[in-house]
Design goal:
Mean pLDDT: 96
Keywords: Oxidoreductase
Number of strands: 8
CATH topology of the largest domain: Dehydroquinate synthase-like, alpha domain
Distance between the termini: 37 Å
Strand content: 5-15%
Organism: Algibacter miyuki
Radius of gyration: 20 Å
Helix content: 40-55%
Protein name: Iron-containing alcohol dehydrogenase
CATH class of the largest domain: Mainly Alpha
Low-confidence stretches: none
CATH superfamily of the largest domain: Dehydroquinate synthase-like - alpha domain
Oligomer: single chain
Number of domains: 2
CATH architecture of the largest domain: Up-down Bundle
Length: 386
């Protein structure tokens, strides 16, 4: 097992009817910017619960943060922060709203010329404006980590940012909110969380026995509850396990002491930037091809995953590893998630070359756990996913 440090300061408030507790978490003298997305929170009762909890503090609202948090929209929100002298941010939404709020947390105190530099220059935020979250869509784990991904439509870019100053001070997780989520978004959330675990697990054996078991237990839980959540999003037992699995998949715990991959995400972000494909679905497109292309490097963990998660007991290591990839792809299909780029766009010619060029231009010359996935190899993986 590798050396590691682990610190996660986010307070989790989990369970039924917990939104009211935000009144105990936000300073009474704060001026709060309430951030949300397309307005669904006003239809499902979450907005009213939040407003009631915020009755004793001054609140300014900013809605309309899109599914891929857009830089131009966030710059409008940043102007509100400056003009209104906001001191505290509250994200009410899924990963996109929370990621956008993290960008604003960093940008509000950023002393550079343009906040986009935070992303292009990979500036780690040591101190941001304080913020909390009310999670409405389990998927990204952004409610308990310090990372974010921001999109810029004008340049067709989707880039990551983060830093120790970007952990939420608190996050409210009430699984009852899942009852109003459309099936497409539930499938996306399940796929996103599942792939988050794979990115931190599907590398090579390093003797981190407990970390492997943590990861495998999250995968097993997602597989178990997925059909129940899709069938009945009011099933509290299933949805509570779904929500907590999404959080645990990317709160830093399972990545400690082990190598990480994250090439699937790096490539998937480009597909979202180029075609607007849902983030989770880009991961399902790239992951199977990625594992097949890097089979020799990953087959030991693939076989272990096949044995422990999918109960594959027959055949050689290679046989089990290939079967595990097939099981993973079948799981995505059962959720209604297509796994080929051509399922989402017919305008895919040249996509592999374009992504490889972008990685070269950014100096991303070695992705993956071994840092050996050069842009020409990325090109081959994307072509395999056509």
């Amino acid at each position: 097992m590798n050396n590691f440090e682990l610190k996660n300061p986010t307070k989790i408030i989990f369970g039924k009817d917990t939104i009211a507790q935000i009144k105990n978490e936000i300073p009474q003298d704060a001026k709060v910017l309430l951030l949300y997305g397309g307005g669904s929170i006003k239809k499902n009762g979450i907005y009213d619960q939040v407003k009631t909890a915020l009755a004793n503090v001054e609140v300014v609202e900013f809605g309309g943060i899109p599914a891929n948090p857009e830089y131009a929209v966030l710059m409008d929100a940043l102007k509100v922060i400056k003009d209104e002298k906001i001191s505290y941010l509250l994200a009410v939404g899924g990963g996109s709203v929370i990621d956008g709020t993290k960008f604003l947390s960093a940008a509000a105190l950023f002393e550079g010329d343009t906040p986009w530099d935070i992303l292009t220059e990979n500036i780690k935020t040591e101190k941001g404006m304080p913020f909390g979250t009310v999670l409405t869509l389990p998927a990204t784990g952004s409610e308990m980590n310090s990372g974010a991904v921001i999109t810029r439509k004008e340049t067709k870019e989707k880039l990551a940012m983060g830093g120790p100053g970007l952990f939420p001070e608190f996050s409210v997780l009430d699984p009852q909110v899942i009852a109003s989520i459309p099936e497409r978004q539930l499938a996306n959330g399940l796929t996103d969380a599942f792939t988050h675990v794979l990115e931190q697990y599907m590398t090579y054996p390093i003797g981190a026995l407990l970390q492997d078991r943590f990861a495998e237990s999250i995968l097993q839980t997602i597989i178990e509850v997925a059909p129940k959540v899709i069938k009945d999003p009011t099933d509290y037992e299933a949805t509570s396990n779904f929500m907590w699995s999404c959080t645990m998949a990317l709160n830093g715990l399972i990545q400690k002491g082990v190598p990480g991959d994250w090439a699937v995400h790096a490539i998937g972000h480009e597909l979202t930037a180029l075609f607007g494909i849902d983030h989770a679905r880009t991961l399902a497109v790239i992951a199977p091809s990625h594992y097949k292309f890097n089979f020799e490097d990953k087959k030991e963990k693939l076989a272990q995953y096949g044995e422990r998660v999918w109960n594959i007991s027959e055949g050689s290591i290679d046989d089990k590893a290939y079967a595990a990839i097939e099981k993973t792809e079948a799981f995505f299909h059962e959720l209604g998630i297509d796994t080929k780029l051509s399922d989402y766009t017919k305008d895919y010619d040249g996509t592999a070359e374009e992504i490889a060029k972008r990685f070269t231009d950014r100096g991303w010359l070695g992705l993956g756990e071994h840092q050996t996935l050069s842009p020409d190899k990325v090109e081959k993986i994307v072509k395999m996913a056509y």
